[in-house]
Write a structure and sequence with these properties.
Number of strands: 19
Number of domains: 2
CATH superfamily of the largest domain: Bira Bifunctional Protein, Domain 2
Shape: elongated
Radius of gyration: 26 Å
Distance between the termini: 40 Å
CATH class of the largest domain: Alpha Beta
RNA sequence: UCCUCGGUAGCUCAAUGGCAGAGCGGGCGGCUGUUAACCGCUAGGUUGUAGGUUCAAAUCCUACCCGAGGAGCCA
């Protein structure tokens, strides 16, 4: 039987007869010569048919194929530098064709640029286009690399609850759902507090799953449902946390570079920038970042840029500030020691400087900005209780969390990495809605 | 919630007060190396909705609906 192959492995079958199963992505008919660009889920490959080389019925079948028709193609693999595809450079000289279905001729996604609204309304079909296919293949590899690094470095996967009793951080808006006789429950915005419980049983843990924010954010960096990996580590301070993060992120990038070159090439990603991603990453304090922003603002001649970079000590950075900062570095940059007032209640105050805390964000280069937020957590029960009271959080709801600090408390730290933002940076694309199969935004839950 | 921009053929867009248009996609025909092929023909319209001004509205005015980008907030 002729072997059924995956297009991603086509180079292994040069000059051999093979079969592929897939869908017609594009056709070019030139009378007695027909080119089909066929995708099989693993790649895109050009298939060629000459009328005189084939039985009349077979050639007629090839001519009447519409875009997205499902087929099995038999043919001989040839190396040919003219051939488009992912990976390109190979084509299949068709010797046989089996048609599963001639697709309806009103396929809405013509091969051209589309507006955002149309593309998102047709997300179920948009996924078939090379750019989206490449991005989501890279996303899958990012997730593989994440689990691989954590699993081989002593982290235990702990699945934290999606349905939770109350706001973990008390700030952002949560999705509410009715919950039997308990009244309301909420969709999780983080698994961190549960992982702080888990480390006292397993030392190093991580959760990886969807999180939900009901904020009305309308930017290229926000989704209402997004995926986050959250490692949490016992006996770990802020400096050790940064070492973990830089190794972790470097592994993810290097793994994508190793396994997803054709996809990166099809996205026209400049991989020389990604190749530089290895430890150590630069570290600057929040204070230094504020000074740097002031200097950049001083140096710019663009009045609009000047306005955007205006900043005062004590605020959190906005998108323009993050973009300006990251453009000063080739690698991701750590910014540590944020003002306590703008960060969550559970972060350890800086020794001798309680107005700042032992928090650290990791900002991706090329203007992409924050992909990780992390911190050393408060380990003292008294200090933690005081912070809960200062934030006017319901003390009763945090009884179990406070108890963790009474029975064997240790310094511990953790962080959350946003999957979509990371994929967006690695792929070099503009908007994170393309980095998840079916994005959920403030005014979109279809399809 | 606020600010800015937009909504015309299946899609991407033109038409700025005077006949509703083009390219792509669809259909028909042609072509032996196409790269979102090309060439000829063809079908395809309640110009987001409602009201108003005008001899005449896609175009000007009012209200509303929908979307995008940004702010705030965050990963």
């Amino acid at each position: 039987m002729t072997p059924l192959i995956r297009v991603e492995n086509i180079a292994d079958y040069t000059e051999q007869e093979i079969r592929i199963r897939g869908w017609v992505y594009n056709r070019t008919r030139k009378g007695k010569l027909v080119f089909l660009l066929v995708r099989d889920g693993y790649g895109f490959v050009q298939c060629v048919a000459f009328k005189n080389d084939l039985p009349a019925e077979t050639f007629e079948d090839i001519v009447r194929l519409t875009q997205e028709s499902s087929v099995e193609i038999t043919g001989i693999v040839r190396a040919d530098s003219r051939s488009p595809g992912i990976p390109g450079g190979f084509e299949i000289g068709i010797t046989g064709l089996k048609i599963y279905q001639i697709a309806a001729d009103d396929y809405p996604m013509a091969l051209k640029e589309h507006g955002v609204d149309f593309a998102l309304d047709n997300r179920h079909l948009w996924l078939r286009m090379p750019s989206q296919w490449a991005i989501l293949r890279i996303r899958a590899t990012v997730l593989t690399a994440i689990r691989e690094w954590l699993d081989t470095n002593g982290y235990i996967n702990m699945d934290t609850p999606i349905i939770t009793p109350a706001a973990a951080e008390g700030t952002t808006t949560l999705f509410e759902t009715p919950y039997f006789d308990e009244g309301a429950a909420y969709l999780a915005q983080t698994g961190q507090l549960y992982n702080e419980a888990n480390i006292f049983a397993f030392s190093k843990v991580y959760c990886l799953g969807p999180t939900f924010r009901a904020e009305k954010s309308k930017t290229r960096r926000h989704l209402t449902e997004f995926w986050m990996v959250e490692p949490e580590v016992a006996f770990c301070d802020l400096d050790e946390l940064m070492e973990i993060e830089e190794q972790f992120v470097s592994h993810i990038v290097q793994r994508v570079l190793r396994d997803r070159q054709p996809e990166l090439a099809s996205l026209e990603r400049d991989t020389t920038l990604l190749e530089k991603i290895s430890p150590p990453f630069p570290r600057i304090s929040y204070d230094e970042a504020v000074e740097m922003l002031a200097r950049l603002r001083e140096e710019t001649d663009d009045p609009e840029e000047k306005e955007l970079l205006a900043f005062e000590w004590g605020s959190d950075f906005g998108a323009p500030h993050e973009a300006a900062l990251t453009k000063q570095f080739e690698k991701p940059v750590f910014v540590y020691g944020y003002p306590t007032a703008v960060k969550a209640f559970y972060m350890e105050p800086w020794p001798g400087r309680p107005e700042v805390c032992k928090s650290v964000d990791l900002l991706a280069p090329e203007g992409y900005g924050e992909i990780i937020g992390g911190s050393e957590r408060i380990s003292s029960p008294e200090k933690l209780l005081q912070r809960i009271q200062e934030h006017q959080l319901p003390e009763a709801a945090y009884q179990w969390y406070l108890e963790l600090r009474r029975f064997g408390s240790v310094p511990h730290s953790g962080f959350g990495l946003g999957i979509e933002r990371t994929v967006s940076w690695i792929c070099g694309i503009h908007h994170i809605r393309e980095t998840i199969p079916f994005p959920r935004t403030i005014n979109r839950v279809y399809p």
